[in-house]
# Entry
Amino acid sequence: MDDPSVYDANLVRRARVAHGAGDLRTAQNLTAELWLRYEKQARAISRKRARGDEAEEVLGHLQLRFIKWVYFRQDEPRNMIGLLNQMASYAYGDVQRHEASQPVTVEEIEDYSRPDSALSSILDRAQIEQLMSVLSERERLIIERELADVPDLDVAAELEIEPNNLHQIRWRALKRMREAADQQEWGS
Amino acid sequence: MGFVMDERDIRLGNLLAETLLAFDQGRTADVDRLLDSAGDDRFELVEMVELSLTLRGPASPSSEAIEALAMTPAFDARSWPEILTEARHAQGIKRPALVTALAERLGISSSAGEERVRERYHEIETGQLDPRRISTAVVDALGDVLGGMRDLLAATRLNPVGPLNPSVSFMRDGFDDLDGTVMMEAMMASPSEPTADERRVDELFGV
# Structure
């Protein structure tokens, strides 16, 4: 499987070249593709900062910051999830300032390179494989089936367990992976 | 080997499965309702949703979805001077008419105040005044005067304005609607205390 980060970096580079050459339509399309690749993750990340309608506002500001980052910055993307997490903390500040009718301050942010948690610094499939090594055979199978979009009912039938049990095992497996990520301290 | 059932893990495991399904189906209101139903465990649930989505990897959007999104205001890569000039010309609005309408919407009624609006607007359109500094009230008023451009202006105000057009330094091109004599008189006049309206305009434009 191709490393998504290579594809992402290529999109960013091409968008910046197009933007620099005045080909705004191409720059916009490439940037829109990059955003759509991670829109679900961005929606989840915005929920870490706020709830409900306010989370949607954070998402809007996060999207704006993301787009400006592609168009106007020079730094190379390493990890989109980590980048979105970093931007989300500033996007939450944007919402607060907007509500207080204060000016936007995007120029203050110079460094989006440091992820805010080990979890958000997962870079590629190799690291995911490494995290999965902490799982039992059954846990690993459940995670792999999920990644392959196999319906929960089918997985539960394969393992001869109830869906409730499946969900519990998956929850615990994810917790163990998160703990493993914390111990790895990636991105430090 | 027996499997230890844990009520909390079952509840959160089920919530995670339901939330991911709601995510996949674009049911944002349900996502929020499910997350909130986790109570004190909400943040942990969100983190697990994020981890699950991270493991899945990025989506593969369709070309139709990409092109539709790319045309929305947030993705507009133009600077305010370009957007304002193009919009004004496209709609055949002369700058004096725009300034009068803008001043009216901002509640500026004196001639001194309107003159200050004209100066500040000129600075924005020629890239001398950073749109990031101006108030939301001006963004909204300008968007209305130019016809339904609030969202576009709000989304693009962070775009850099770039280097000034060389013609700006000579002023004449920038003040194409102003009589040269009036301009000269304004430049020769001795500075005086700004009026209340002038101070108000400067505040609105972040000067």
